[in-house]
C-alpha cells in the first residue's frame, strides 16, 4: 500500500509540471547558451534567441544580474514561462507573465533581488 501511495505522489508531481517548464528544462540540460554576445533591449534586459528560446541577463537597479530562459505561449499549449537563475545559482520557473519577449514595464520591480522575487511570485501564473 505504501508503494502505491509513493508512486501515486510521484505521478501527481510529474503531472504538475507545465509543458513550458519541461521544454525549458530539457533545453537547459541539452544545450549551452552563449551569454557573451547579447543584444540590448533596454537598460535592464540583454538577450539573444536560440530557436524558440529567448535567453539573457536582467540587470537589477542595484547591479545584481539574473539569467533567464523564456519560451512564449505562442509556441506552447500553456501560458509559456521563464526559468530565472538568481546570483546564488538557485533556479526558479515562473509561468506566464511575458508574451513575446522578456520585458519589465515596472522599473520598481527591478529595485533589488528581494523586490524582484516578490514581483515574480505575485505574477506567477498570470496569462501574458
Question: Characteristics of this structure?
Answer:
3 helices, 128 residues, globular, 25% strand, alpha+beta
Overview of the structural elements:
With 128 residues, the chain is an alpha+beta fold. It has one domain. It is built from 3 helices and 6 strands, in the order H-H-E-E-E-E-E-E-H. A 6-stranded antiparallel sheet has the order 1-2-3-4-5-6, with helices on both faces. A hairpin with a 5-residue loop joins strand 5 and strand 6. The longest helix is centred in the N-terminal third of the chain and has 14 residues. The model has no long low-confidence stretch (mean pLDDT 86).
What coarse outline follows from CA principal-axis ratios? globular
User: Count of DSSP E strands?
Assistant: 6
- Spatial order of the strands forming the largest sheet: 1-2-3-4-5-6
User: Which class do the helix and strand fractions yield?
Assistant: alpha+beta
Nutshell version of this structure?
With 128 residues, this protein is an alpha+beta fold. The protein has one domain. It has helices spanning 2-15, 19-30, 113-123, and strands at 39-40, 45-50, 53-59, 65-71, 81-85, 91-95.
Strands, helices and their partners?
Blueprint: H1 2-15, H2 19-30, E1 39-40, E2 45-50, E3 53-59, E4 65-71, E5 81-85, E6 91-95, H3 113-123
Antiparallel strand pairs: 1-2, 2-3, 3-4, 4-5, 5-6
Amino acid at each position: 500500500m505504501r508503494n502505491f501511495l509513493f508512486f501515486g505522489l510521484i505521478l501527481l508531481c510529474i503531472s504538475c509540471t507545465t509543458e513550458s517548464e519541461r521544454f525549458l528544462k530539457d533545453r537547459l540540460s541539452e544545450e549551452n547558451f552563449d551569454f557573451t554576445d547579447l543584444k540590448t533591449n533596454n537598460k535592464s534586459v540583454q538577450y539573444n534567441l536560440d530557436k524558440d528560446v529567448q535567453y539573457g541577463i536582467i540587470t537589477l537597479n542595484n547591479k545584481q544580474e539574473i539569467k533567464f530562459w523564456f519560451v512564449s505561449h505562442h509556441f506552447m499549449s500553456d501560458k509559456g514561462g521563464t526559468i530565472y537563475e538568481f546570483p546564488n545559482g538557485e533556479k526558479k520557473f515562473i509561468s506566464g507573465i511575458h508574451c513575446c519577449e522578456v520585458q519589465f514595464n515596472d522599473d520598481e520591480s527591478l529595485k533589488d533581488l528581494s523586490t524582484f522575487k516578490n514581483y515574480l511570485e505575485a505574477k506567477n501564473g498570470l496569462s501574458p
